[in-house]
Amino acid sequence: MRHFFKIDPAKELSEKAVHRLLTSGTDGFIVGGTDGLTAENVSFTYDLFSESELPVYLEVSSEAAILPYADRFLIPSVLNTQETEWLIGRHHQVAMEYGKYIPWNKTSTQGYIILNEEAKAARLAKADTALSIDAIQAYARLAEHVFHLPIVYLEYSGRYGNPAVVQAVREVLGGTTELWYGGGIQTLEQAVEMGHHADVIVVGNSLYEDFESAIETTQARCFLPC
Ligand code: 1GP
User: What average pLDDT does this structure show over 32-45?
Assistant: First the structure.
């Protein structure tokens, strides 16, 4: 299991906080957010976190988040959206405009399954969040075996999710698609619980709410079998 912090460029972190994060024991950082992104705050944040050897992923959710010199790009595609725009439409527009310049070999597609109906991303992408476990598993199977996506991302942003869903998705993934979980992890105990099933756990909002507790989540690996 790997642990990533998700850093929102629209929110402020002190110099001390950035240092603590860089030395926290996390496995990497995802720079990304839902709104308030500008070319300036994205590049400023990316530069702060790329000072260390840890991987820094740039999650491209809007054109403002395209930083040509970044090393790793994550391209979200919402599997349970009701509008093709969020599955492939926006991506197509960007590829039409910037296709020649995008370092495609540095991109990984995240097949998002958004499950918290109150999350901004769920509303924006018109995600169908009222899904049974069978329906969620079916998306995961398609992601791995039909679309060959490297990542399935169970997204509960802002709310702690259902560990039984994460476990059920784990059970149907065959090992070529990674399972990432994000949403509402505030404590070490929660990080361990989700870390039992997920290849990657992502901690975002709690950084800005209870910093010390968020830092503790980096220790989850110590409580999991190797
Ligand atoms: C957001 O999944 C991440 O995209 C993390 O969620 O902010 O709720 O921790 P939280």
Answer: 92
Instruction: Kindly report the CATH number assigned to the domain that includes residue 9.
Output: 3.20.20.390
Judged by DSSP in three states, 3 sits in strand
Would you state the torsion angle of the CA atoms of residues 203, 9, 111, 98, taken in this order, to the nearest 10 degrees? -160
- Map residue 12 onto helix, strand or coil: coil
Distance between Cα 140 and ligand 1 center (Å): 19
Based on the structure, what is the number of domains in the chain?
A: 1
| Residue in 157, 206, 215 to alter for ligand 1 test, most ligand atoms within 8 A of Cβ | 157
Residues above pLDDT 70, as percent of the chain = 100
Tokens of 35: 């709104």
List pLDDT tens digits, range 146-194. Answer: 999 999 999 999 999 999 999 999 999 999 999 999 999 999 999 999 9
Can you give the residue range of the structural domain that contains 149?
A: 2-223
For the CA of 207, the nearest atom of ligand 1: 9
pLDDT of residue 58: 95
